[in-house]
C-alpha cells in the first residue's frame, strides 16, 4: 500500500514512512493511493468479533508490509487493553433509532485515545527497528494533546511538545497536559488560538532545516495513521446495528474534520452508511462552506465546546482532494488562495460531490446547553458539550427509518462547568484521575511566533 500527498508533489511513501513523516514535504496530507474495500461477507463476518479483531481486519489492508501480522496484532492488543470498557466503543440508546457511540473510555477520556494509543505502539516498533529518535510536536485544542502525552510519556527515544491555546482549554484538559512529570513531556501554552497553534506546527514542518535537525514527527490527524485507527469504530458500531444488511447514519461533532473523514473512508470501504452529518459549534466554517460553497475564515470564537474551536480544518483538505477527483494541483491552488486571501470558493462540481457525501448543521451556545439538559432529563445521561452539538444536529437531521449514531467524543467530566450549568450535576472524574487537581503543573508560556517555538524545542529536546 502506497501513500500520496493531497498536493501531488511529495514523495510516495509506505504506511510506516507516511506515519513517521506526518505532513508531506509539499505541505499536503498523505492519503492511500487506493482505498481497499471489504465485501459484504467480510463486513458481516465482523459481527460478534472483539473490537481488537475488528480493528485488525479493517486496518490490515492499509498497512501493507510495514508491520507483520504479529506485530500489528500485538500493537492493537496493547493499545486497547487499558480502556475502561470491554466493548472499547459501546453503543448506548438515546431515543428510538438514535444511539450514542461512547468513545471516551480510553485513558484520557476522549476519542483521541483510539488512534493515539495505537500509533504510540506502532511508533515504538518502527523506532526500535530503525534506531531513530524523534521529536513529536502536536497542536491541540484540548484533547489531542493529553492523548499524545499519555501515549508517548517516558519513552527514551521520543520528546513530545504540545502547543495549546493559552486560556482556551478546560481546566481538566490543561491539567492532563501540564501535570505529567516525565522529562520528555513539554506543555507549551501559546498566546493565540488553536488555528495559530496548528499553523505554527505546519510552519515547523515546512522549515525543512528545523524538521530534519530535530527529527520532527506529527501525531495530529495530519498523520494518516490517526485517521485510519478511527475508521474502525464506524465498522464496529454499524455492524452491531445490523450492517451490512441494514444502513446506518452517523453524526460527528467536527472541528479538524479527522473523525468524520474516517467515516468517509469507512463508507468508501463498503460500509453501508446512508448519511454522514457534520455537526459544528459556532465555529461553523464547514457548515457555511457546505451551505454556500465559500470556505472562509471568520476568526475563532471561544465556545463551551472548546475542542471544536477551529476554523482552519486540516482534514478538509483530504475531502477536497477526493471532491476534486484527486487533482493535487487544484488542491494546492486552493490552499495557496486560503493562505493569501483567507478563503476560497469550491467549484460547483466539487461542491456537489461534497454535498452528495455530507450534510451539516450548526449549534449555538444556548442550544448546546439546552441539549445537555434535555438529554439528561430524558435519559439520565450526562453528555459533554461536543457530544451535545452532535446530538442536536442529529435530532434535526435524522429520519425515522435509518438508525442514527452520534459520536460521543469526550467524557462529560472533562467539561464539568458546562455540564453543571446545564443540569445542576457536576460529573466526576474516574478514581484513577482523582488527584488531578492536586498535582503540580509544569507549563511554558510561549508567543505565537515560529522562531520562539522552534527555539524552545531545540533547547529542551534531549539529543
Ligand atoms: C471532544 C472532541 N469532539 C470533537 C472534536 C472534533 O474532531 P475532529 O477534529 O476530528 O473533527 C474534537 C477535536 O477535534 C474533540 O476533542
Ligand atoms: N480537537 C483537537 C484538535 C486537533 O485535532 P487533531 O485530530 O487534528 O489532532 C484537539 O482536541 O486537540
TrEMBL record:
Keywords: Amino-acid biosynthesis, Lyase, Pyridoxal phosphate, Threonine biosynthesis. Residues 2-80 form the Threonine synthase N-terminal domain. Pfam families: PALP (PF00291), THR4_C (PF24857), Thr_synth_N (PF14821). Coiled coil: none annotated. The modification N6-(pyridoxal phosphate)lysine is found at residue 112. It is an enzyme of class 4 (lyase). Gene3D superfamilies: 3.40.50.1100, Threonine synthase, N-terminal domain. GO terms for biological process: threonine biosynthetic process. Its cofactor is pyridoxal 5'-phosphate. GO terms for molecular function: pyridoxal phosphate binding; threonine synthase activity. Pathway: Amino-acid biosynthesis; L-threonine biosynthesis; L-threonine from L-aspartate: step 5/5. PROSITE patterns: DEHYDRATASE_SER_THR. Residues 99-331 form the Tryptophan synthase beta chain-like PALP domain. Transmembrane segments: none annotated. It comes from the Bacteria. Its EC number is 4.2.3.1. It catalyses: O-phospho-L-homoserine + H2O = L-threonine + phosphate. PANTHER family: THREONINE SYNTHASE FAMILY MEMBER, THREONINE SYNTHASE-LIKE 2. Belongs to the threonine synthase family. This is Threonine synthase. The lineage of its organism: Bacteria, Pseudomonadati, Pseudomonadota, Alphaproteobacteria, Rhodobacterales.
Amino acid at each position: 500500500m502506497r501513500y500520496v500527498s493531497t498536493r501531488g508533489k511529495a514523495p510516495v511513501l509506505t504506511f510506516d514512512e507516511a506515519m513517521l513523516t506526518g505532513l508531506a514535504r509539499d505541505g499536503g496530507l498523505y492519503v492511500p493511493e487506493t482505498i481497499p474495500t471489504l465485501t459484504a461477507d467480510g463486513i458481516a463476518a465482523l459481527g460478534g468479533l472483539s473490537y481488537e479483531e475488528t480493528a485488525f481486519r479493517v486496518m490490515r489492508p492499509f498497512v501493507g508490509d510495514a508491520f507483520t501480522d504479529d506485530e500489528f496484532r500485538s500493537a492493537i492488543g496493547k493499545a486497547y487493553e487499558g480502556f475502561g470498557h470491554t466493548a472499547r466503543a459501546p453503543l448506548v440508546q438515546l431515543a428510538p433509532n438514535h444511539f450514542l457511540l461512547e468513545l471516551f473510555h480510553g485513558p484520557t477520556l476522549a476519542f483521541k485515545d483510539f488512534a493515539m494509543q495505537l500509533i504510540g505502539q506502532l511508533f515504538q516498533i518502527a523506532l526500535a527497528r530503525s534506531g531513530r529518535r524523534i521529536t513529536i510536536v502536536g497542536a491541540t485544542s484540548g484533547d489531542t494533546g493529553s492523548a499524545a502525552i499519555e501515549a508517548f510519556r517516558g519513552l527514551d527515544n521520543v520528546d513530545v511538545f504540545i502547543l495549546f491555546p493559552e486560556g482556551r482549554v478546560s481546566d481538566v484538559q490543561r491539567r492532563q497536559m501540564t501535570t505529567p512529570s516525565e522529562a520528555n513531556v513539554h506543555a507549551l501554552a501559546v498566546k493565540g488560538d488553536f488555528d495559530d497553534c496548528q499553523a505554527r506546527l505546519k510552519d515547523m514542518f515546512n522549515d525543512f532545516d528545523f524538521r530534519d535537525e530535530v527529527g520532527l514527527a506529527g501525531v495530529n490527524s495530519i498523520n494518516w495513521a490517526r485517521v485510519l485507527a478511527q475508521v474502525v469504530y464506524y465498522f464496529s458500531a454499524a455492524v452491531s446495528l445490523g450492517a451490512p444488511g441494514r444502513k446506518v447514519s452517523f453524526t460527528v461533532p467536527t472541528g479538524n474534520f479527522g473523525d468524520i473523514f474516517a467515516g468517509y473512508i469507512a463508507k468508501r470501504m463498503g460500509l453501508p452508511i446512508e448519511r454522514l452529518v457534520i455537526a459544528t459549534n459556532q465555529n461553523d466554517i464547514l457548515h457555511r462552506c457546505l451551505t454556500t460553497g465559500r470556505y472562509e475564515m471568520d476568526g475563532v470564537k471561544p465556545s463551551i465546546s472548546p475542542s471544536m474551536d477551529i476554523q482552519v480544518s486540516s482534514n478538509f483538505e483530504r475531502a477536497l482532494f477526493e471532491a476534486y477527483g484527486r487533482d493535487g494541483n487544484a488542491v494546492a491552488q486552493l490552499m495557496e488562495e486560503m493562505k493569501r486571501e483567507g478563503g476560497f470558493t469550491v467549484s460547483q462540481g466539487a461542491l456537489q460531490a461534497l454535498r452528495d457525501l455530507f450534510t451539516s448543521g450548526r449549534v449555538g451556545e444556548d442550544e448546546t446547553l439546552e441539549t445537555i439538559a434535555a438529554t439528561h432529563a430524558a435519559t439520565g445521561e450526562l453528555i459533554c458539550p461536543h457530544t451535545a452539538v452532535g446530538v442536536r444536529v442529529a435530532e434535526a437531521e435524522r429520519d425515522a427509518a435509518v438508525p442514527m449514531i452520534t459520536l460521543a467524543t469526550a467524557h462529560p467530566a472533562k467539561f464539568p462547568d458546562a455540564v453543571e450549568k446545564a443540569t445542576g450535576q457536576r460529573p466526576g472524574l474516574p478514581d484513577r484521575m482523582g488527584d488531578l487537581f492536586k498535582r503540580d503543573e509544569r507549563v511554558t508560556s510561549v508567543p505565537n511566533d515560529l522562531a520562539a517555538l522552534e527555539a524552545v524545542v531545540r533547547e529542551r529536546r534531549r539529543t
